[in-house]
Amino acid sequence: MNRPTSATALPILAGLSAHWGWLLARGVAAIVFGVLAFAWPGLTVLTLAVVWGAYAIVDGAFALLYGARGAGTRRWPYVIVGLIGLIAGLVAFFLPGVTAIVLVMIIGFWALAVGVFEIIYAIQYRHAIAHPWAVGLSGLLSAAVGVIIVMFPGAGALSLIWVIAAYAVLYGILMSIAALHLQRLHNAHPHGA
């Protein structure tokens, strides 16, 4: 069932929903990373750093593009999430030899930042979109996982791999749901009218 939209929300809706593919790409990338992390036999900290770094770069690029392509809309949280993802991914990808504790802290702070900014985004657009619950829930999940990882970094990257992998899969599913909601809204209101 579509959420009723007001006349003032329709232009915002059109701007947001036109870029549903970027959110879907982020969701698919997260799911792929999570499945790889679960399935990779003999995962080492070095392998985790490289795989997570590649994922964070891809996710950051998609988030940055989604935020930057929102001319006339206020998608600044995604620009910030994209920049944080790119920087964190580049550090993990190009400096995979950093200690496990540093890698865990990078992943934890990244997840916490992503979570906070996605909660802000969900609150900011709660009246204009039909998926604020999916984005808000993914943000809450990210923030919770980030806090757990930052609070218990001594658990080590390999012992946290199940948490990180499960988080990635759940996050990817929620982002994909949000994207599909936006696609449906875009199809219903392609020009915001």
From TrEMBL:
A Pfam family it matches: DUF308
One Gene Ontology cellular component: plasma membrane
Residue ranges of the TM segments: 20-40, 46-66, 78-95, 101-121, 133-154, 160-182
The keyword Amino-acid biosynthesis is annotated on this UniProt entry: no
InterPro entries reported in the protein's UniProt record: Acid_resist_chaperone_HdeD, DUF308_memb
Keyword field: Membrane, Transmembrane, Transmembrane helix
PANTHER family: PROTEIN HDED (PTHR34989)
Protein name per Swiss-Prot or TrEMBL: HdeD family acid-resistance protein
